[in-house]
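Working notes for the structural subgroup meeting. M.R. asked for a predicted model of this chain before we commit to crystallization trials. I am recording the input and output together here so anyone reviewing the notebook later can reproduce the run.

Input as submitted:
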Amino acid sequence: MESRRTFLKKSGLCTAGVLIGSSAMPAIPADVYKSQRPAPQARRFSSDVIEATIERVKAKLPHPELAWMFENCFPNTLDTTVYYSEKDGRPDAFIITGDIHAMWLRDSTAQVWPYLRFANEEEKLKRLFQGVINRQTKCIAIDPYANAFNDGPTGGEWQSDYTAMKPELHERKWEIDSLCYPIRLAFHFWRTTGDTACFDANWLATMKLVLRTFREQQRKTDLGPYSFMRNTTRPGDTLHMSGYGYDVVPVGLVVSSFRPSDDATVLPFLIPSNYFLVTSMRQLAVMVDSLSADVTFAQECRALADEVETALRQYAIAEHLHFGQIIAYEVDGFGNRLYMDDANVPSLLSLPYLGCLAADDPLYRDTRAFVLSEHNPFFYKGAFAEGIGGPHTGWHDQIWPLSIIMRAMTSQDEQEIQSCLDMLVATHAGTGFMHESFHKDNPEKFTRKWFAWANTLFGELLINTFDK
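Returned structure, recorded in token form:
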């Protein structure tokens, strides 16, 4: 049987040099490209427009393995993670991450995001987005400091954490992006559809709670109401200093106690998330201007965005030993900076994808050169791929497909995009799905075989690349 490298070259997917040093990995014969989707009657949510999109895009893909992967991955969120219902006459959607039966504010947005461009083409799909927005609004109102929620007051494995847990919460790790992602979804749903049914007085009150939470975590007068500790053998699952994390100077940035990986920050001002906050608060201000008479609230949103943006210029950008002026991953206002990047989004790599910086911005380009180099302590290069990982899995040399996908999504170089596709095809370990992470020299050593965010994002990449 031909080696994986030979197979990729024949398919037109291989870029010279990408797989240098790789050992032989068997290609999958065409007769085993059988759909890995659940049977139609077992799918949690179905959409005619998404099914039509799958068939259209599959026909444009250059090799049956890539088409097979797209068919498996793109609808994975709809097929397996959506719990849709109508409550009090309004759509409601609880979106699990995959193999964890809980709804993260971040993941639920990212999982449905690639379907948003089709929301105007099918009423059923539009109502799904309404359901996600309605559920996210309810979740934030329960606790704006929580990152993940149960489908009701069921309790769970983290109820013993030393924080203000409630039975509705799956986990209570304070992460800036948990409040930014629902704004991103609401803003772009509104822009795409013009629909305003979700954006009532309850939504506006919840958005004011978001602003209050961001202001509290600027920590200008005190540490704020949030603290967190856990009995654990994983240092990244708890916070130092009696649950408040290390000290910061109140320079206008917002503390994020945890990263989007759900790992604790080292220096509490998480820079990619602060960039995301700036973008999100400006989007929220535009919505409030259009949908509400509350001029003061819109002004307050813009004022916070302006303040954080000014602080980013002063504290997040500095001279790196090898790369010149770049953006740090974390800072503390004392002058300390952590230079790295993590695969989870928001990341430094993902800033153009989130609308925070232009891909051709010189500052972003220099920062990108750093994060995709071996000067980034979590950038790994092996026999089958190169990419960014992070400490979350607890293993060295584990690359996250999210980082390879995001590299392609933010690239302006066709050869680099091609290279990323090569690596994704070469590392799904015969499953037809993306995973949380895989070992750089052995793709069969992977974590999480059911991780819907990575699957759906991979589908978005292929649509952006081939369905033009």
